[in-house]
Amino acid sequence: MVASIEDVARHAGVSIATVSRALRGLPDVAAATRDRVLQAATELNYVASPFAARLASGRTTTVGLVVPFVNRWFFAEVIATVEAALRHAGFDLLLYNLGDAQGRSRFFDVMPMRKRVDGVLVASLVLDDAEFSALTELNRPVGLLGLDRDGFLSARIDDVASARTAVDHLVEAGHRRIGLIGGDTDDPMAFTPPLHRRDGYRDALQAAGLDADPGLEHLGYFTVDGGRTATRRLLELADPPTAIFAESDEMAYGALREIRDAGLRVPDDVAVIGFDDQPLSELMDLSTIRQPVADEALSVTTRLLALIASDDHDNLGETEVVLPTELVVRGSSGPRR
What we know:
By secondary structure, this protein is an alpha/beta fold. The chain has helices at residues 5-12, 16-23, 31-43, 50-57, 73-88, 101-110, 129-136, 159-172, 193-207, 224-235, 249-261, 279-283, 293-309; strands at 62-67, 92-97, 119-123, 142-145, 153-156, 178-182, 217-219, 243-246, 271-273, 288-290, 320-322, 326-328. The strands form 3 sheets. Strands 2-1-3-4-5-11 form a 6-stranded parallel beta sheet, with helices on one face. Strands 7-6-8-9 form a 4-stranded parallel beta sheet, with helices on both faces. Helix 5 runs parallel beside helix 13 (293-309) and helix 10 crosses helix 11. It starts with a helix and ends in a 9-residue tail after the last strand. The model has no long low-confidence stretch (mean pLDDT 89).
């Protein structure tokens, strides 16, 4: 049977309040009494409740992490990195997976993390003014991953510039018909990559003097199957693309498979470049844009913890960190024949 604080008090012959003060190291306990309490706690193998300690300190030592999805590579990387950083700091992670538009609306209406966390991280969500207001009203430090806003900590990459780099690479290889496989910019979950990477794709075409063709843009929904379906539609065009930019490596994997199933060669007939540089991308010989997901997540988490520990939550210090991406050229993006 687990010993309670009442057991320690009886064993030491003191009040429960005295046990609490002695175990917390407060100065208003006589040395002999403290020794007696510590001896009783040792003999009974008493372990103080962490929840009681948190209540006494006024902190929860918990950080809330809000994500639109948990079953995609980017968010899995974010969750793993944040959890490890929090655990190292002695904090717990409280995860909120919004899942769909209804779950998102309910979350920001109710704010279930209220009084349960010391700080909040929000990953890759395009937030409206009402949602930002709901976060501000928590009166807790907030960190944003994948976007920035005045008055909040943030860490992100430049998705627009990174997508331009990918498309510029294809243009420099001689491609003029470049397809886009992207996410749904009208998705009610409104997470950031579909919006920004499409803009980068169009900016690169314009800079190269190429007209954007809506018929070359298809949705892949950030899945392998979606990438296959989008590629099939691109290949069925009367004038199909000679190259494809996929806004994620998952969609690029689907594109590679569909191109080869159509009896075509990569990159001789159709070149492909992805985005993220997931672990399988090297094995697939996929050219891609390397995104430092773990570094982004660690940067904002570390600064959020420092802000939580400070007495001045308005002194944000370095608010915005933009991390660099890298073009990784492999065998899938050779020059146009």
